[in-house]
Structure to design on (158 residues):
């Protein structure tokens, strides 16, 4: 029982840093690389996604500049919400389509960490979810970032 309270106090110490909207939906890790001359290199969909992220970062420069000092030297939690059109989530018969969010996190996490200038080893918690939207033009990824001072769990006082 004591450990549940302890974990609750630790989670409550997280500070909401930002919610970023309208990020592009990444390709899957399976489609991000191609085999080439005995090695691997980025696929066209990977390159296109990186360019879309760079364009997004240019349009949100002030926001990213404000976030950087808030995350510097801290451990992070990131929530990824994939807003997708119904046709990408369900078959015509109502079954669930194969849209595996965990296969899409790595490229998005790498791009976001590059934008906020933090090493991705500082991300300790990930959450991913799918949200249905009415039209394809509304498809996006929304990222929420929380930060916590690096320290020992023993440092927290209940």
């Amino acid at each position: 029982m004591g450990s549940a309270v302890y974990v609750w106090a630790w989670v409550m110490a997280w500070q909401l840093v930002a919610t970023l909207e309208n990020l592009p939906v990444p390709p899957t890790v399976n489609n991000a690389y191609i085999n080439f001359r005995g090695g691997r290199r980025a696929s066209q969909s990977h390159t296109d996604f990186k360019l879309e992220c760079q364009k997004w970062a240019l349009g949100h420069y002030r926001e990213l500049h404000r976030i950087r000092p808030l995350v510097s030297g801290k451990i992070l939690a990131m929530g990824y919400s994939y807003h997708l059109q119904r046709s990408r989530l369900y078959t015509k018969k109502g079954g669930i389509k194969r849209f595996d969010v965990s296969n899409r996190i790595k490229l998005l996490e790498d791009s976001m960490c590059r934008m906020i200038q933090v090493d991705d080893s500082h991300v300790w918690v990930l959450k991913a979810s799918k949200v249905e939207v009415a039209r394809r033009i509304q498809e996006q990824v929304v990222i929420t970032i929380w930060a916590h001072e690096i320290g020992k769990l023993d440092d927290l006082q209940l």
